[in-house]
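Changelog-adjacent note: as of this version, every example in the card shows the full chain rather than a window. The one below runs 156 residues end to end.
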Amino acid sequence: MKIALKDHMTRKLITVSKDATAAEALRLMTNYWIRHLPVLDEEEDYIVGMLSERDLLRSPHTETPVGKLMSSPLKTFPIEAPMKAVVDAMIEEKVSAFLITKDDEVVGIVTSEDMLVLLDQILKKDESSDAPWVLGDLFANPLLQRTAYLVGQAGV
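Full-length structure tokens:
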């Protein structure tokens, strides 16, 4: 089964201005039930960083500008990248979200939650087959091993 990154990412980006406060960013995350916000330089109309819920937890004040809290430079993957490369990078770098690009333009975001949805789909497909589940086979699947590890690292 070929798993394409373009089928397992979020295309609608919710962004925050680099001049917004930590409180404003937290409000956006809460309202949209998300944990990552691409940070936009509104003057340049360009994404300059990524803000995570974890970054907000480290903020000393609610009025701290997002530009001082964000991670930069951006970590991105091209839309044609193999899903395994993305999962490997999430695990190795302990990063739970990457921006996805096409022709140097950001077209989406892939997060650890997207990986959990993918794992759920794989498991449902497996459950619907007539073949019995062999737990050893499941644990031997490298994609599932990495996804399970990622889920554990995310604290889910």
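Structural remarks: The first helix runs from residue 22 to 32.
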